[in-house]
Amino acid sequence: MRTIGQTIGRNAALSLGVMAMLACCTGAWAAEPTDFTSDGCSLFPDGTIDDRAKWCECCFAHDIAYWRGGTEQERKTADEALRDCVLEHTGDKAVSETMYLGIRAGGHPVFPTWYRWGYGWPYGRGYRPLTEEERTKVREKIDDYRKNHPAGYCREKADRDNAKERSEP
Question: In whole angstroms, what is the distance from residue 82 CA to residue 84 CA?
Fold first, then answer.
């Protein structure tokens, strides 16, 4: 004979298991990605004090890959491309490796952040390859972004920053 505590414990465990399964799979069948957004280098500067956008384009390309999502290998390739691009723009291995290690640690799709792998899809997609239909929708969303932002994120941000500096006393 079970005690009330055992019954409640068993039911709670089953409920938690079902909720975890649903949370894991929520959005996994989403048919459409969100509109593309970029914030440059997220939690890292886009450049140096002297050149505030020195590696911003590297981060923008990385944001496209992260927004798109895909497999674990595609994420690793995107992170390596970011590291290599920053190294090419700076010649500074310490900066490029710091960025690489930071994104490897913090960009995992399990984290419910705005910069996680696959942030263009609802949370819970994880490392799932895109279908042909999804790849088409991703291309359309990127094309829409480029039409609406012909100068690109980094140029628009630099223009905003410059205007702000000119308006300050």
Answer: 5
Q: Residue 117's Cα: distance from chain center in Å?
A: 5
Nearest CA-CA partner of 120 in 105, 101, 139: 139
Q: Going by C-beta distance under 8 Å and a sequence separation of 6 or more, which residues neighbour residue 152?
A: 57, 60, 146
Strand ranges, E, within the chain = none
What are 94-150's pLDDT values in tens digits? 999 999 999 999 999 999 999 999 999 999 999 999 999 999 999 999 999 999 999
Give the predicted TM-score (pTM) of the model: 0.80
Q: Is the separation of the CB atoms in 97 and 83 below 8 Å? A: yes
User: Which residue carries 């491309």 as its tokens?
Assistant: 81
User: Any idea how long the chain is?
Assistant: 169
